[in-house]
Amino acid sequence: MPQFKRERFQRMAQDRMLFRGRESFRLMSMLFLLALIGMLIFQSKNPSMWTWLAPGPESKPTAEVAEKPSLAEPALWMETIVPGPADNDSEEAEAAKEEFQAIADRQPLDIAEMPSYWRLMRWIRSVSFDEAAQRARRDILFTHLCDTP
Q: What's the sign of the alpha-carbon dihedral 110, 112, 114, 116?
């Protein structure tokens, strides 16, 4: 009878164990892999880790690039105006009328519309911000663009 009680006690103790042989190995390997993935994510923030992906000439930052402007001296911003025709040129306006016929409102962007958009980008780059702001209409709201594009 005492042998029976001992076996029963040992069987109950084994049933109460949280992890048996294989489960504990799986848990430890899962925790190890989780720690490894965490370290990889942490290391991926470092830009020097990605130099193998886009190799190029090793350029050290010059003193000009490396030095940051102080708060006392704000960096001066210069507007870049690209010389070229704008919408006030009659030939450009005529060519644009033909291209603008390809634009469809309330439709997904199509490849046929791209020349029109690129023409608009060239036009806006050829005038200054002040001139563009003076020529802009002030009576247009965002809702007008959504309702009647």
A: negative
Check residue 97 and give its pLDDT. Answer: 92
What DSSP string runs through 71-121? SSSPPPP------S--TTSHHHHHHHHHHHTT--TTS---GGGHHHHHHHH
- What does the alpha-carbon distance between residue 126 and residue 110 come to, in Å, rounded to a whole number? 25
Ordered by start, the domain boundaries in the chain are: 2-50, 90-147
pLDDT per position as a tens digit, 94-143:
999 999 998 888 888 889 999 999 999 999 999 999 999 999 989 989 88
Query: Which amino acid is residue 21, in one-letter code?
Result: G
Helix H or strand E encompassing 29: helix 21-43
* pTM assigned to the model: 0.46
Residue 126 CB partners (closer than 8 Å, separation 6+):
81, 82, 83, 84, 85, 86
